[in-house]
Amino acid sequence: MLPDEPLSPAERVKEESRGLRGDLADQLAAGAGHFSEAGAQLLKFHGTYQQEDRDQRRERRRGGTDAEPAHQFMVRCKLPGGVLTGRQYLVIDELAERYGNGTLRVTTRQGNQFHGVLQGDLKATIRAVNDALVTTLGACGDVVRNVISCPAPAVGGLREEVLAIARRLSDHLLPRTRAYHEIWLDGEPVTGGAGGAGGAGGTAGTEPIYGTRYLPRKFKVAFAFPDDNCCDVHSNDLGFLVVAAGDLLVGFNVLVGGGMGRTHGKEDTYPRLADAVAFARTHEVVEVAEAIVRVQRDHGNRGDRRHARLKYLIDARGLDWFRDQLERELRRPLPPPAPVDVTAIEDHLGWHDQGDGRLFLGVFIENGRIRDDESRRLRSGIRRVVEKLASGVRLTPQQNLLLTDIAERDRRLVERILDDHGVAPHGALSTVRRWSLACPALPTCGLALAEAERALPEVITQLERELAELGVADAALTVRMTGCPNGCARPYTADLAFVGRSLNKYAVFVGGSMLGTRLGSLYADLVPRDRLVAAVRPLFERYRDERRPGERFGDFCDRVGVDALRAGHSVSV
Ligand code: SF4
User: Fold this and answer.
1) Distance (Å, rounded) from C-alpha 83 to C-alpha 100?
2) Using CA atoms, how far apart are residues 84 and 366, in angstroms rounded to an integer?
3) How far is ligand 1, taken at its centre, from the CA of residue 445, in Å?
4) Active-site residue 14, yes or no?
5) Among 135, 274, 513, 516, which residue has the least CB neighbours within 10 Å?
6) Atom of ligand 1 at shortest distance to CA of 449?
7) pTM over the 0.85 mark
């Protein structure tokens, strides 16, 4: 951003907010059912999005009424590494029933979201979340979002060590403002991080890391392992990729500048994979992360939010410039990255030994939505297991859930409870469904152009039929759908992705990598939802006939190239 470039309106709201206070408390007390535009912007930093049920809006318009929009709120819990105790999970489950729409949603960043909370219930919801020692502070907004890390328990192993570092870093990067406590907790301290209990600098306008304007945009941080990139580390603003010598954690390659968001029709917005910029030893992680956040804080674009993510700063100034800035912040040089790359990915479904004689079970949650319906009482089944066995719960970046700390003798009991609730074991899933992801989109997300979570299951059913008919049901591939190009479900690294363009049309991307190390390319545009599977069938026919042994679908599409894949088919782009 040039020195004399005007600040975007969002920057002024932050600057004038007195440490994220604004007049949120007054608006809450007024009880109008919704907040002003500026209030709704500040609310995000507190972990809440103001939304409107867009199904109801459509109905209202159809009925020709000019009634007020049906405002409701999404409340997001910040859960570093996706870790919850059983008791915390039960509280969240109960809150979803009492204040939300009766469902829980696992996000692609290991958080949990309640949808459908009314303004009058916001305070009670956030307070109850905090009573369970969980926070919503910083789950949204222009700060470091939930720090993600592989949640698979491995007692005494590297994964727990890395998870502990991720949680420590998350605490360090929490906002320090006391506004959250004043507004939602009546000034009482919150537990669970440095931001609690009025940590250092906890008065208005004295955020030691974020300053008065916080960051130019959201900032995502992930930890991952070369043999398990379940956190899709390259799609984050800042990634830490483990460098180990046997069982010993040596440090991390530091990756910067990843991000998924783009805007249709704006060529200067794009998804980008993070680049390795340096190596950091384990004890340097917090310091290096803070220095990177400071560089983005001081140099990121504050005039145009569409270009405010770290990836645009790095592309505008270059990786060498960025490394110089980082080393200037640290006042020392950093070694170059180690020769370590991602080679595999896990989804952690099924039974696994967790290293202390106990087991964990990875349960498939389609598109992250935990609910009961006529055929499957998933929410009740999980609740029953947690109540009965006091197992812990961990949420994965693939939107699944791990039930942890289960004794071998209770394995059958868990299986029986889930079976009694209609929850099939993961072995019954097709590969294509097992690896599918969708964002919430309609009816809650205000930015959604098309359906995602509600549409993908049926598209997957159609794909399952096609793949079986073509004899490629074994194809290992990730299929992702989002309601708009912002890319919350990471569509651009998927083997196959459907990105919403308008109410019923999608852009189709192919050629990403299941490992999260390559971006896909646009194959077809404006494809109606009921033609999506027909549009990609020719690709699977070629895949069946021309794939190399062990070749994944995305790798095949990338090798052949979208121009060649389109040849002979009428494809609109
Ligand atoms: Fe909303 Fe778009 Fe994100 Fe989906 S990808 S949740 S539609 S912003």
Assistant:
1) 21
2) 20
3) 6
4) no
5) 513
6) 7
7) yes
